[in-house]
């Protein structure tokens, strides 16, 4: 369902595709830099010190989240400049795409790239060696990982809308809320293999972020009710 966001809302618009690909590239660069920092830290530390290695892993996850949000801010700045250029080039003085639409497409770009890398890791684990759950561990690893990938794609989409809205209206607490939610969801992954402890809170946060993003985008309870009842 998450990848359907691209098919139904972006695929037919060339400008949206460009914004999505650029957003995915920004996320990829943030991952590359955070992975490089973590790799250097691990190589420079004692591999026999399990407590230190766990601490470095936590540091790597938190640093990656902060770097992703920093690149989200840089991408917002870039798109803001792009809108000014589009307005200057247009005949009617209007941009062909609004900042709200850009926020949505950029969020989908971040989410799809994040989901793609999660799928690659799952496929790599599926190749073996070994069988999931053979030593008494949960056999739901692949299923729960798929659900976690989906929730992250949706969350990145909603976070993009919230983050851009906070930047646009200088509501820094909205930006801080996005960073805190991102840190929380990433930190919940350390609850695994107790998957309920990570999946349930993540989906609750996704529901809250979805409602928040819907309201900031101009949605209302009446419009939602009409949509659910298939009324024009």
Automatic annotation (TrEMBL):
GO biological process: Notch signaling pathway; protein processing
Protein function: Potential subunit of the gamma-secretase complex, an endoprotease complex that catalyzes the intramembrane cleavage of integral proteins such as Notch receptors.
Chief subcellular location: membrane
TM ranges: 17-41, 56-75, 102-120, 140-165, 172-190, 196-216
Organism, scientific name: Spizella passerina (Chipping sparrow)
Coiled-coil zones: none
Membership in a protein family: Belongs to the APH-1 family.
GO CC, any one term: gamma-secretase complex
Membrane-topology descriptor: Multi-pass membrane protein
Record protein name field: Gamma-secretase subunit APH-1
InterPro entries: Aph-1
Cellular compartments annotated: Membrane
Quaternary structure and interacting proteins, as annotated: Component of the gamma-secretase complex.
Pfam families linked to this entry: Aph-1
Keywords: Membrane, Notch signaling pathway, Transmembrane, Transmembrane helix
